[in-house]
Every structure is written in C-alpha cells, then in structure tokens.
Automatic annotation (TrEMBL):
Keywords: NADP
Organism: Diaporthe ampelina
Gene Ontology cellular component terms for the protein in this record: nucleus
Residue stretches making up the NmrA-like domain: 6-100, 116-192
Family: Belongs to the NmrA-type oxidoreductase family.
Entries under SUPFAM superfamilies matching the protein: NAD(P)-binding Rossmann-fold domains (SSF51735)
Protein name listed in UniProt: Putative family transcriptional regulator
Entry superkingdom: Eukaryota
A Pfam family assignment: NmrA
C-alpha cells in the first residue's frame, strides 16, 4: 500500500484547499515532492472511479449538489460509487465532506429510533475552527479584496431574488436551518471547539 492521497474535486473550492494544505505540510510534502497529477473523474462511471483509486491510501471526497428532479438520487449514487470503490481498493482513510444529519434536530430524531445508526469505525468531524458572524465575514472579505463591504440583512423574499431559480428553495431552506439550529446543529459551538483542538496549522476555518 502506498501513501497516495486522492482528492475528488481537486480544482474546486473544497478540494483545492485540501491539496494546498497537504503540500504545505512539511512531512507529507517530502514524500510527494510537491507533485500533483490532475485527472478527470466521472463519478457516473464506476470504472473511472475504480481507476482513480488504485493505490490510494487516503481519499478526500465531495459530491456536487444537483438541484434538479432526481438530483438527490444522483448525488447519493455518486457518493456510493466513491465509497464502495474506496473499500474495494483497500483505502485506509476516507474523508467524505457532507452535511449534518437531520436526526440531530428535535423532534426529527424521535422518528428514527426504529432504525438505529449503522455501525461504523469512523467519526464525524466539524471542519471549522471558529464561528464567525456575517458581519465579521464581510469584514474579512473587505480586507482581502480591498473593497468596502457592509453586511445588511434583507427579507427572505428579497434575498430569494438573487438566487438561481433551480436552487432557490434548497438554498433558502439551508440558510434558514443554519439560522435556527446552527451550522452543525444544536451543538455547533462545542463541535467547532473540538475541531479547533485537533486542527493542524492553526488556520481559521469558517462556520
């Protein structure tokens, strides 16, 4: 087994920083000599996913949300293709970027008592080390862009007008969830605190 890491979505907003973080780390960068191979991977094609995972030790995976009829089923199939082929390839660690399960939101958890959580050897981690207010986020964006930015909260129906029609409902529901329950649910602050204790490098991750 090699120490090869494989990152799905390596050119995107999640996968890109993962690649950069690995290359910035002194220990793994000695092994990889800052070399990165980029390959197209179609998660609709199991044979391509299988080939991409040959020799992989650690995998970071994320799937694209598809805001169209049947999109949820498609995304589920993509995630299952990656996880199934990772197991088949003998991958030691699979980091899957996902959303918080709805069973943590009262009273939804009560409806799942008849279906116990499946056994697993992994752990759910909050990939953030600090919680920012939207005003603080605007301030960070202003400093990095050199532009004047001010956070102003507008009514939901006004904000909805800025969103693509296909994803409008899903995005509004997601943001309403964050507002009411917290990004990672009721235990957001504690989960972020725990993540900050194990994060390597000290760089802030926003929630």
């Amino acid at each position: 087994m090699t120490n090869l890491p494989v990152v799905f979505g390596a050119t995107g907003q999640q996968g890109g920083p993962v690649v950069s973080k690995v290359l910035e780390d002194a220990e793994p960068s000695k092994t990889y000599n800052r070399g990165v191979d980029i390959a197209r991977c179609d998660t609709d094609d199991r044979s391509i996913v299988k080939a991409a995972l040959q020799g992989a030790h650690t995998v970071f995976a994320m799937t694209v949300s598809l805001y169209r009829p049947g999109g949820m089923e498609e995304e589920l199939a993509h995630g299952k293709a990656i996880s199934d082929e990772a197991v088949e390839a003998g991958v030691q660690f699979l980091v899957y970027s996902s959303a918080q399960g709805q069973t943590t939101i009262p009273p939804f958890g009560a409806f799942f008592h008849q279906r116990p959580k499946p056994e697993k050897s992994g752990k759910a981690l909050a990939c953030a080390t600090r919680c920012y207010t939207l005003t603080e986020i605007a301030e960070v964006m202003a400093r990095s862009s050199g532009k004047k930015l001010t956070y102003i909260q507008v009514p939901k129906e006004v904000f909805a007008g800025f969103l693509p029609a296909a994803s409008r409902s899903a995005l509004l529901n997601m943001l309403s969830y964050f507002e009411e329950f917290g990004y990672y649910g009721p235990d957001t602050e504690q989960l972020v605190k725990e993540a900050a204790q194990v994060e390597k490098g000290g760089a802030d991750r926003v929630c």
